[in-house]
Hints:
The chain is an alpha/beta fold. The chain has 65 helices and 51 strands. The chain is globular and about 140 Å long.
Amino acid sequence: MEGESEESDEEHEVSRDESVGSKPTPRIHDSNGNKEREEEAEAADSGDREGPGQSAAKPVQTGGRGGFRGRGWRSREESRNSGSGWSGMEWRVRGTDDYDRRGGFRGFSMSRRAGRQPSRHFHQDRSRGHVKFISLGQKPSLYPDTLDYEKLEEFSEKEPSEVAVSVSSHPALKPLLGESTMKKDMLELLCLVLSKAFKSRADRSTLQHLAGTIKDSIFLRTVLPNFLVGVCSEPDAARREKYPEHLENILVILTQVLSIFPASTVEPVSLLLALLPTSVNSLRTSGVDVPAQIEENMEHLQHVVSHLQTKSREGTLRSNKDTYALLPTGEEDQQDFRTIPIYPTPEELQHGNRPYLRPNLTSQRYPNTHVYLDTHFRLLREDFVRPLREGIQELLFTIMNTGRMDNVGNQGKAKRLDDIRVYHDTKVIAPKCTMNGLAYVIQFNVDQLKFVRWQNSKRLIFGSLVCLSCDNFESFLFATVSDRDPKDLQEGKVQITFTEESRNTLARIEQNQVYLMVETTAYFEAYRYVLEGLQEQEEDELPFKKYLVDCSPDVEPPAYLQRADTYDLSSVAHPDFKSEVKPFHCLDAKAWPTMEKLGLDESQFDAFKLALTKELVIIQGPPGTGKTYVGLKIAHALLTNQSLWKTATNKAPILVVCYTNHALDQFLEGIHTFLKKGIVRIGSRSSSEILKRFNLRDLANQYEFIDALPTHLITAHSTISREVQSAERDLESLSLQLECTFKGVLNESVLQRFMAEPHWECLHAVHKKRVLEYAGKKQSVIMEWLGLESLQVPKSDATSNTQDMLAEATAEHPKENLIHVAEQADLLEAERDIDGRDDHRRENARQAVKAVEKRMLAMSLDDPEVAEEHKAGENNEGWEYQPEQKRRIRNKIKQELKKDSTMTEEEAGLIADIWTLSVPDRWRLYRLWVKHYKAELRTKSFHLEEEYQNAVDRLADVKRQQNLCLLKEATVIGMTTTGAAKFRRMLQQVRPSLVIVEEAAEVLEAHTITSLSSACQHLILIGDHQQLRPSSTVYELAKNFNLELSMFERLVNMELPFVRLDYQHRMRPDIARLLTPHIYSELENHPSVLEYDNIKGLNTNLFFVEHTHPEEEIKDGRSHQNRHEAQFVVALCQYLLLQEYKPEQITILTTYTGQLLCLRNLMPASRFSGVKVRVVDKYQGEENDIVLLSLVRSNMERRVGFLNIPNRVCVALSRAKKGLYCIGNSEMLGQVKLWSNIFHTLREKDQIGTGLTLCCQNHPSRQVQACNATDFGQAPEGGCTQPCEYRLDCGHVCAKVCHPYDPEHKKYQCLKKCQKVLCDLGHGCLLLCYESCGKCNVMLEKTIPRCQHKQMVPCHKDPNSFVCQEPCQKTLDCEHPCDSVCGKPCTTKCKVKINFDLKCGHSKDDFCYYKRQPEKVVCTVPCKQLLKCGHDCPGNCHHCHEGRYHVNCSQKCERLLVCSHKCQAPCTNCPPCARPCENCCVHSQCSRLCGQPCSRCVEPCAWQCPHQTCTKLCHEPCDRPPCDEPCDKALPCGHPCIGLCGEKCPGKCRVCDREEVTEIFFGFEQEEDALFIQLQDCGHIIERRAMDQYMEMDERQQENEEQVAIKLKECPKCRTPIRKNLRYGSHINRCLAEIELVKQKIAGNQEDIQAKTLALRERCTESMYNTEYTSLYKYSETKARLQNHKDLSIVDLWIIENKIDFYRRVDRVLGIICKNDRHGLRTDHFREKCSNLLDWLKSPQQKFTEQQMYDLERELRRLTLLAELTALRNTTQFKRMEDESKSEQHTIQDALEKCGPFTEDDEERVKPILEELKNKFPDTGLGISDEERKMIVSAIQMPGHWFKCPNGHVYLITECGGAMEKSQCPECKETIGGSNHSLVRDNQLAPEMDGAQGPAWPTALHPLLD
């Protein structure tokens, strides 16, 4: 074997005391090397072996992957990588970059966005003279690809986390664990390394992959048991002393592997546990001290194993797909919050019991830390669980009362479901590969959601939790929305990511399952991370417990100031005093510099001082007081004095946490002004250009960082990235195909494998050419068959209509682009999505889908045009869809694809002609084909999904380790609160000692807790609790349990020291008056706000417009809109813009998201672009010069909503700097005390009223009272209604009314008609005054010189260059009229139909221009010849090659196969069934084809009830009797179930469905105590006793020795095979076992198949080498099929064998004629005939049926005789005497060239004549007859004087027979003769002339013998 290890014989002869295992095998050293490295390894020196278990080969340094490589077998993975071009250095340099562009997982390369290309360095390995490439960003690995003893020793000395990553990702681990023998030293060291890896704190995915590699290995199941057995006989005392350590390591491995994979490892672990006590006792007997801890660990592990074995016997042990936590050693209090699951349980969602909750304490301390953490955990969990729980309970209640689900959840009909949103008919479409792992595209019914505007809707936004159930929430799947596209949502598609457990459950659920999906609006990801953090928080490690729990007001200085407290604040001092500020002791209050020197006001100084001297700091900053400014001052001071809080051992960074991305960007940009490097921003939703280069993702891809990474991380990243890429490539291909099945009509070629052979043939045979071809343009067959082609019209007829329709549509619906308003969904997604959306990857995926669509779809729903392959034509004439037709066809396809009904296999099998079906039945048959296609794709994708997700999780673990290296070196880390929750574990490892929280009053206390690590020594909270509070989902929890109280506000309430900033720098005093004293007791104005200019065009800078116009409720959600307010605010905004305010100076704020859309629809981008339109809650922390505020609420019920919350009012009124204009219902708002006080303040200065006064700047005396939007019409241009009358430069007068903008009219465009004359004829300009005059376009009648036709031509146009549009009057060469126009060249393709007489004897009408290419005219006359099977041939004359070899018979076989399916093959063959296997159980479904043997399910049998339990495996006959007890459950209608205990409840009720249930079939149905079984395969309900007897009939017949057919029992009502019912599982399993035996016999023994395959491969290779005339491609294609012999059956091999045989026979036929090619003969015509035969041979339909074999034999015989005749004709003798045999030639030629088959009679007639000709003209090879040859030889009598030229032409050398001169052959001009009695080298003796054994001259041939 190539690459096999070359170990010495001594190494193979391993004695028992030196190795573990019974049979030595060569060790596999390498599984991932590439070809280049393999060659280098072979070229390297072998070297000496240095230690036990060490590789025999010396490591060879390579640059390709930065690793070493020993010698060993080349794995399939290596071959696959090499074959696809992803090998070594190429993958690292080229491959990874390509992968980045596709949005996949990044390898180590320079960032594309930074514009830097990856580069390479040459590396010279002087010891071997090889030059290799090393990719930048990657170092050569320090260890080889083998795990030898030396490598394991190296691992054993490293940190556990490094060991875990390195070992789990090492390519040689699996081969090492697969060895059946291992030296003891090696095994002991391996156990040490593995146990060390399991002791690490590595991410779960890494350890799970490591455990997964171990669980199925020979190491666990064979090597370790042998090792433990050998402990008892160990003679070496020193080795015995170390055994306790080894046993402890083994126990660690067993414990971890069992914990992660309980179901599959309980057996091998129990075996090892049985051996361990014996080993321990043996060691103690020999005097070895075994610690008691080992026995305790063994007992605990034994307890767990016993528990798992019990669950296995009960059938409740979960499979390996689920993780399983080991039992705790002691019982814990079930009320402990740490034991509460994060996800809600089925019991929790189905029952109304509310959990125990404690309120957040706001006025007293917490009893202890446990209660503190418990309180916040329970409240936070209840905040997302309660809406889901109550919503589902209401949903189930509604379903129970109505019995229907179709209207559940509709707005207006089920208001109780406001807590959740319901989506019907949800299906999982396809898996999707994303940056974060495996996601799924799902589709739901949107018929009831037409009112939803997805762009702005909060439905299904990123991070929302969804719950899918198919059984009324008895069970369910959890997932989160991972990506949304509003366009896709309109079609009902969204991408979700299932939880791990749900993903594993999904794989066991039947395909095409329909779910009911509910959504809760909570951002679950943030909840999950925080809840996990609270559970993991150790009580004794909670930082600041003294203040957070005990609420002590005595705040101490930071612990680091106890070492040193000298601050240098010169860097933050006022520029005028920098030199005066000296270092000082900050804990000495008197030593501080003054506030003037620091450039701060009094309150800012107090806050700054508090922040630097206390370990917990609270700073309140009312609007405009500069809290960000103070925060940056504090950060600057801390960063300038890093030596105080950083030590040599602790270089932890400062952590900055903000609630929003905007605030985080603002704060970090401020830090960047004084810290140019060392910043890391986590999260990709930054809008700051400055911070882009500090993004974590970009920093992690920089070469400098990668180069400094630990080698084990680089190697692990490279290895796992390849696995990810390989799995993604395969999975994406399947996913794209699955998606396409929902995107339109699939091409018939895609579905061919899933169609019955007769259906495929019928689809094309009956296809009407006159419909499919128009002007040479071919259309799709399946489109016409589905009835979609009938709507087409000729393009020429459609063009004008289409243009008219488009013009009318444009005129009737003028649409102007509207301004961009940040959609609420986008804003929420921006705050939730930390990693960011990879738009490049999304675009690549979209392009990939389009590419697959073009290949797979006959018509796409996205663009309903015929696919490219059907559009190609020779001209642009043909068929085209009109817009209305497009819409109609799209709707028709959508409607049909949504339907679930498909034709049954039985129905489909009865159809002979699919064209006779009705259109609905055609669609049902089409959906059946698509169903089989999708089933095959889903089956293939299952194992790939698990492989991909596993690799992605491990890669994410490695990336986290890499990011951790980066973060530990940072100076400042910035992230949002959402990011802090997601990266919580990473922060715990970074351990920042200083944390600054901006917007702290908006953050839930639980979020703040989990942002802190135990190392935190200094916490600074900055915010304002009198502005926005934290948001919660449940209103009751916010108000009654104080969940909405932030840590900031709670600590202020508990009277901890805090500072409030008192001077505001934003609002003019009039606006600030609205906040003081109504919201803030005291707020001073900074002098800068007194200098603002007044707002132009208005008589006041602050005004509240009163109105009573009612609001409207938005249908989707709970939002509101007020059209009157929206129109007024937009009109006011337009008015302000006319006053020459920039759009960027104006912000429109509203209190409800519903008003956003209303405002947007009134604001065209051409006029309002740049104006900000925001919701109040998303505008905190921002400001603008002018703010227009719409309060929206105005209703008869006088509900003000959250406008009564002071916090929100504070934000709304404090955003404006110079002008604030509000509009609202003051009468209704006045009932709120806060608003009443504000209105009182406004009335003091007449700043409230029903109308806003507009003042003209040009005419101040003219004023307008604007009460509504129409009033602004009195100032149409922002001034008044007086005319402008300004004289323009063109002499015209300004036509506008008074306008304050553009007073000099520099931008004005005169719209009067231009007065200029353009040409000599006096034509005037037709344009407007401001437009540039062009050429004269007045239409005139002119004579075209070339043809003298009169045409209407533009005035400026020269008639010589004009194309005349008159019809062409010329006649073509074919004498038909030209159909072009006069000014264009005549057409070259005449489309007139004429009659053609074809060579087959038929005639046909076709285009005239085909006369130049008559071979393109094909005969379509039906063949109708009677085939061997007795049916008429379905082909036509052309397809059947003029009757020589026929199209396959389209009649179905329809025999019943052993699998219970009908044979779908043609009528003469019954191959193994090719349909997807339908065998399934409760655990899984068989993924193979039906004709292939199934894999047995080895899960525990699931048949159990309270009375009986089966202990067998799933595939075995059950060992329990059926339970005959009645079911004790109640049906949804409330009546008792009519089924049996332990069986699935029938769907019918004895009371509600009495007639159907008691219908007599067997006779027992009407008895009152009758119980029923519902057959799960067909749904029919059968009485139990009769069904039991029916199922036992076969057993009774066998007992009576009667013959019983091998097949599944069928439903007695509908004959559907019974496969699924647990009650009859024993019978089903016995039948399936018998069927499997039959399948195996049909499929053949695998060993025989392999042997036959190898023999055929050798035969194929031999034929390839020996072939002379046929194409090697035919053989290579056949050989490629033989490469993958797993899918080949005996029948397949028989077909391949026949193909090889016929290929060889065709080659021999070609040889007959081609041997004479040296004579200059032409064989192209004959080769073409052979090529046609070869093409037919390699056709997929070639099954070598009786008819096909007959046709092949006859055609091959015809070609053989034709070859013999042709060869005979080309002999010289035949040419000379050709006239003598003309009649015989014509007789043979007619028989061989005639149309139709070459029959036996034809052969009998031709063969004697041909033999006679052969005898008459024998081929001597000399061109003369034998008689002539004898005469010549006899006459000359010179033996040995005859020679021949290289081409075989004979000549004579006279005299001595030795050549003395050279000449030229008269026939072929080759050199003949020679010199010095010697021939030229290419000439030879011609013994065929005279029989001479040698030349007459002895040395005549000497040169030929050299």
